[in-house]
Design goal:
heterodimer, A: alpha+beta, seven-stranded mixed β-sheet, three-stranded antiparallel β-sheet, 15% helix, elongated, B: mainly beta, eight-stranded antiparallel β-barrel, five-stranded antiparallel β-sheet
């Protein structure tokens, strides 16, 4: 009987020490920006509504930009671990460590007008400064949005939407079309073009 | 003879006036807990959204504790501590405030994201009052005129305005002064019915007139270009309440048989 108890206590102790000694796992996320798409927003009401057709009040126009991404998760096992023990992270501060790697990181978003926007900006001009990103009761510039987006890379959904609202409307009503380009750090870019829309 | 008659009439009058002092059986020291309802008297209350950010509403709960000390059977002095509590919901934005803001902006703006920043839903008042008491059998009629101070709190609120037909948004903060101390006058009448040797049940009515300046700062910031609009709302109108209470009078001093 004594031997049986001794055996059980020893087994429990080994299990306990083994669990405590387990080293942390590292979970690696690889994100790939694959494509982008854009639709019009009619923000004349209480909330912005995605729409395919105009006319839209030019003071309440926006673009809904969707960034489509793909994710590849790799689990990196540490070099040595006690093979059959569930880690209790007694010797490390946290649970599995998450590391995020960007296959192609977004560095900028550029909006170009394909029609004459106003006297200063003819067709082909970069009018990114006329758009601001609206989220959670506040506006941010495209530049600061890109910075924040990169920081919270792993937290946002794979298909990510942002609302780019036009804060400087054109002087005159008319038909407008925009090209949106996301510049990536590998030297490439993703492009999309909105349909022509009547802003009045 | 005339002088004798006048002296007799004078003595009779004195006896009539002060005679009740001698026949008193009441205690000199009384404790009076009271509970009731407090109604704000202000016909212009709905005019300003800021009125709904006060620490009181149209109808509130009134709690009072009074301590009376009688110098004679009829006259005494009282110290009262009162509180008016708004039970309509303190942490949430007041529905009347939302409605009032919507009425203000309804033509040009959508309103969203109300967020009450600071909340106080009660206030206290302390007053000292001379008392007059008249007793008829088991009934007591009480009259007091209280003079004292009261505190008020003005809550703050934040919300977002979205202009109709536009990408324009304004972030609005309406902030009030948190602690206000005001002078108050509070006449009061009551009727008590003796239930037992030391306990009386009473109905009391109190009018509170408080003199205070209430000031709200309205700050609207356009969240695109950060243009700021500031306005102040100042109200000097006195605050008036009518309180009705049900209370007990507990006689704590010696009671003559």
């Amino acid at each position: 009987m004594k031997r049986a108890i001794l055996f059980l206590v020893t087994f429990f102790l080994i299990q306990f020490i083994g669990s405590c000694m387990q080293k942390e796992q590292i979970i690696e996320y690889y994100y790939v920006n694959c494509s982008i798409s854009a639709t019009h927003i009619d923000n004349s009401g209480s909330v912005g509504v995605v729409t395919a057709e105009g006319p839209i009040t030019k003071e309440a126009y926006g673009i809904s930009l969707s960034i489509h991404r793909k994710e590849n998760i790799c689990l990196n096992e540490p070099q040595f671990n006690f093979p059959s023990f569930t880690p209790s992270y007694a010797v490390t501060k946290k649970g599995p460590q998450v590391e995020i790697f960007f296959v192609n990181k977004i560095t900028d978003i550029k909006i170009t007008t394909l029609t004459n926007f106003n006297a200063t900006y003819p067709a082909g001009s970069d009018i990114s400064e006329y758009f601001k990103v609206f989220s959670n009761k506040s506006f941010s510039s495209i530049e600061s949005f890109v910075d924040e987006f990169q920081k919270g890379y792993g937290e946002s959904p794979l298909d990510f939407n942002c609302n780019l609202l036009l804060v400087n409307p054109p002087d005159n009503s008319g038909t407008f079309q925009f090209k949106i380009e996301t510049i990536l750090d590998d030297g490439t870019s993703l492009e999309t073009t909105t349909t022509a829309i009547n802003l009045e | 003879m005339k002088k004798l008659l006048l002296t007799y009439i004078f003595l009779c009058t004195c006896h009539f006036i002060f005679g009740q002092d001698e026949e008193t059986t009441a205690s000199k020291i009384n404790l009076i807990p009271k509970i009731g309802t407090s109604l704000l008297i202000d016909k212009n209350y709905e005019e300003q959204p800021t009125n709904f950010l006060s620490s009181y509403q149209r109808t509130n709960v009134a709690l009072d504790v009074g301590l009376e000390y009688y110098l004679t059977s009829k006259f005494g002095i009282s110290l009262e501590l009162g509180s008016i509590v708004d039970l309509s919901g303190s942490s949430k934005t007041n529905n009347s405030f939302i409605q009032s803001v919507e009425n203000h902006h309804t033509n040009n703006y959508y309103i969203k994201g109300f967020n009450r920043a600071e909340t106080t839903n009660y206030f206290f008042n302390v007053s000292v009052a001379p008392i007059y008491r008249h007793r008829i059998n088991k009934l007591e009629f009480i009259g007091k005129i209280g003079i004292g101070i009261t505190t008020f709190a003005q809550n703050s609120e934040a919300y977002l305005l979205k202009e109709k037909g536009s990408n324009n948004y304004d972030s609005v903060v309406v902030s009030g002064k948190k602690d206000i101390v005001a002078f108050q006058v509070s006449p009061q009448v009551g009727i008590n019915y003796r239930l037992g040797r030391r306990v009386l049940l009473g109905l009391h009515a109190k009018y509170i007139l408080a003199f205070s300046e209430r000031k709200y700062n309205y700050t609207a910031v356009n969240i695109i270009n950060y243009n700021e609009t500031k306005t102040n709302t100042v109200t000097n109108r006195p605050i008036q309440f009518f309180n009705a209470y049900l209370g007990l009078t507990i006689e704590m001093g010696k009671v003559k048989k």
